[in-house]
Amino acid sequence: MIKNIPTADELLLVSLRLYFKAWGDLAGIITEWAEYGQWASEAQEEDEAVDVQAGWQKYIAAAQSDLQSIFALIQQSQEIGLKARICDISPYLLLKRTDIKPSDGENGVWDFTDFPTLDASELVRVHNMFCSTTLSKDFQTKYEEIRRGRNKISHLGIYRQNIEPLAIIDILQLNYSELYPGRRWMEDRLHFAALGKWAGFSFDSDFNERTGLYTELWHLIPQLTESQFKWLMGHDRHEERFICHECGHDAGLGDTDPYASDVPTAYAVADDRVRCVICDKEYPMQRAGPCPVKDCKCEWQSALEGFKGLCMKCGWAPEEWQESGDRKMPPGF
Ligand SMILES: [Zn+2]
Ligand SMILES: [Zn+2]
Asked: Which ligand places an atom closest to the C-alpha of 281?
């Protein structure tokens, strides 16, 4: 008999963990630049000061080895993601050979993890042969490219192509829809962000995985292409966005950047309701007079218990705004 046979769910979990590790590392590169890039570009000695665009190029050139590690993580995530789908049909399809020694010869026991499994280059073919869906041509081409690139990175440590962060987002977008259909990205992002080294500990702090997601989206969204935006937010960029007061509150926003008004995550779904792309819940809103906050003028206020009367765009309650002496600072919750 064979022991330690993996399940499809187990492999899927590993694949998603790697996927979101790659995502988190990539978002970190973009976010750090958004926070310090302009300052760093201008703060050089007089003759070394560069404009922000040149600064970004310099930064990305120096980040290539980090980007290569992300590339390798993505390849590993793809490989295990494909294995999860094949394993769902039968784990034995993953075995490349069976001529190995038993782990316990006396009792005739083999350990599944001792068997060599299919090469990465075989997985697409086997997947398409046994699974009910076929991987898209686009995915297959990208998968091959990434597999070859990853081989160069891990066997020689030399990869001469320049890796662009936005191109990696395209790859991660494609991977998610091909390998994990039927899942909700935002929910997974929160879940896997919470599964780090400190999972299982609780801190008396305002920072949680939702705070991290807001900070990430705040910096990422302006960089995304139109199609990347649509994939992530589920709507076109020009569609009107509102605050999700519930998520903003849960993320502990309000004392510093980003404020909930910096990252509106809800969209109108009916005349007086919005749905948030992070928590995927619907919330009521009510029409009110134009918001008095400078440049806001939004006519909608939250009608949700606990947030009633708060503007759906800037987050201020009109009377609090008047009392605050028309401070321009965004509101706390
Ligand atoms: Zn929400
Ligand atoms: Zn307002």
From this structure: 1
